[in-house]
Design brief:
Elements: H1 6-12, H2 16-21, H3 40-49, E1 51-55, E2 61-66, H4 70-76, E3 89-93, E4 106-112, E5 115-120, H5 122-134, E6 140-144, E7 160-166, H6 170-178, E8 190-195, E9 198-205, E10 212-218, H7 222-235, E11 240-243, H8 245-248, H9 251-255, H10 271-278, H11 284-287, E12 290-291, H12 325-332, E13 338-344, H13 346-354, E14 377-378, E15 380-383, E16 389-399, E17 404-411, E18 420-425, E19 444-451, H14 457-462
Parallel strand pairs: 1-11, 12-14
Antiparallel strand pairs: 1-7, 2-5, 2-6, 3-4, 4-5, 7-10, 8-9, 9-10, 13-17, 13-19, 15-16, 15-18, 16-17, 18-19
Helix pairs in contact: 6-7
GO molecular function: transferase activity
Pfam families: GCV_T
Domain GCVT N-terminal: 36-258
Length: 472
């Protein structure tokens, strides 16, 4: 009988790491939006030097949570404090398991006292939908899953469109759109602005550290809003560059957010066991590939906690209770790994690429541009001079702004900024069975320098106080 849940899959495949390392799903795709409007290099440069337009309408789940218990429900299932979460605010919402391991994250918006909108990747949405069914909460949930990775020409509809404009020239565009000066909006606060004949909500944001606003509204208004934005940029004499799906995800390399840690839900009893029975066999968690040189038979070796990602800043310790609180108190009392940026040695990178032009010999694992990741979750080994594993690289790509490959990951607490370590690139034994992995390939050693996070100076110096500014 075909498996109907993640539990069924685990019963039939005790080696869940092996299953996910060989998943045939392929690499994580940013759907619908065209890969490049001009070229991904110019699109990266735009958020640093002029202005860029991100279409965020398709690659994220949206979950609406409303009802009398909406705040209590979300506060109980996230680490964040809700004490200062007023109307027209946003937060970086992070849920963990009862064992304290990160499940994922969402951006959460408060639209009413009893209504919240959450936007992000599937694992957090799935967890919250289960929790609403598992507990006795007076809440209503509406789930709008991300657009299909490969819609094959079929029409795609969403509940909301989402656009973000950022870059040093972005304020000129917003002033032109609004028909006058835009209200002063604090970081991660929301206000209303004019776009043509529409009033739209605007979040003060900036994914790579540059000034910017994210706007959203009913999906049926998408084309009208887009035309207003493009016309306003023209009237403001600003070179607004539309960003395609290839460059979009690389902005996080400069701003320091790790987008896809493995959800820590594959082990654990009680609530987690029930969750695995609830979670479908077609879910992200049951099929999302794991890639990289790090291979462990213990799935828990891929888990991370909030301290390792720098999210301990969010933890609402004064809350009476929330899922994972006791486990996080134990993590707080121990030495945890920390998040860093790895700057890859250019000579080593060029040697890996050059191997593909040598007929008759196995080449190194191909380095794709601008995004290196070839799986939903990545884990590449970082070793010191003695060959000891001291960290993992988790998300990487090429920054044309910085003229180098950067990756984000975690290292042991005693690793210092400026240290030069070695990243093992490519999978062991010639590669796994993922469709995104060429076989055979050989592994390469690439020197990496431990660098600041965020890497971009502007992101470090201009973000409001958060995990990005809490330097260790």
């Amino acid at each position: 009988m075909a498996a109907s849940s993640l539990h069924d899959i685990l019963q039939a495949n005790p080696d869940i790491v092996g299953r996910l390392r060989n998943s045939p799903v392929g690499m994580y795709v940013y759907p619908v939006v065209t890969p490049e409007f001009s070229n991904w290099r110019s699109e990266q440069v735009a958020w640093r030097n002029s202005a860029v337009l991100f279409d965020q309408s398709h690659h994220m789940d949206e979950l609406i949570v409303e009802g009398p218990d909406a705040e209590k429900f979300l506060s109980h299932h996230g680490i964040n404090s809700f004490a200062n979460f007023d109307l027209n605010r946003a937060k970086h919402f992070v849920p963990v398991t009862p064992n304290g391991h990160v499940i994922g994250d969402h951006i959460i918006f408060r639209e009413r006292q009893d209504k919240f909108i959450l936007v992000g990747r599937a694992p957090t949405s799935n967890w919250l939908m289960f929790c609403a069914a598992y507990g006795k909460w007076n809440v209503r949930l509406k789930h709008d899953p991300r657009s299909p990775s490969r819609p094959e020409g079929e029409r795609v509809l969403r509940t909301h469109y989402r656009f973000q404009i950022q870059g040093p020239e972005a304020p000129k565009i917003f002033e032109k759109i609004n028909g006058g000066p835009v209200p002063e909006i604090k970081f991660f606060h929301v206000d209303w602005i004019n776009v043509g004949s529409k009033k739209v909500q605007a979040l003060r944001h900036g994914m790579s550290g540059a000034p910017g606003l994210e706007i959203w509204g009913p999906y049926e208004d998408k084309n009208y809003i887009l035309s207003c934005i493009l016309e306003a940029a023209k009237d403001a004499n600003v070179d607004l560059v539309r960003c395609g799906s290839r460059a979009y995800s690389t902005n996080t390399l400069e701003s320091g957010w790790i987008p896809s840690p493995l959800p820590g839900i594959y082990t654990g009893d009680g609530m987690l066991a029930d969750y695995r029975q609830w979670l479908g066999a077609d879910s992200y968690e049951a099929n999302g590939p794991i890639g990289g040189s790090f291979v462990s038979s213990n799935i828990e070796d891929y888990y991370v906690n909030p301290f390792e990602l720098g999210y301990d800043f969010y933890i609402g310790w004064k809350k009476d209770d929330f899922i994972g609180k006791a486990a996080l108190e134990k993590f707080k009392g121990q030495t945890n790994r920390k998040k860093v940026t790895f700057e890859w040695n250019a000579e080593d990178v060029v040697e890996v690429i050059a191997s593909a032009f040598r007929p008759g010999e196995d080449s190194y694992k191909w380095i794709d541009f601008p995004v290196l990741n070839y799986a939903s979750t990545s884990a590449d080994v970082i070793v010191n001079d003695e060959g000891k594993t001291v960290g993992l690289s988790m998300f990487g790509g090429y920054s044309y702004n910085e003229r180098c490959i950067l990756s984000l990951g975690i290292v042991d607490a005693n690793v210092k900024e400026g240290d030069v370590l070695t990243l093992i690139w490519g999978e062991p034994d010639g590669g796994s069975g993922k469709t995104s992995t060429e076989r055979p390939h050989k592994q390469a050693k690439i020197r990496v320098r431990i660098s600041p996070t965020p890497y971009a100076r502007q992101a470090r110096e201009t973000y409001a106080e958060s995990w990005r500014t809490k330097r260790k």
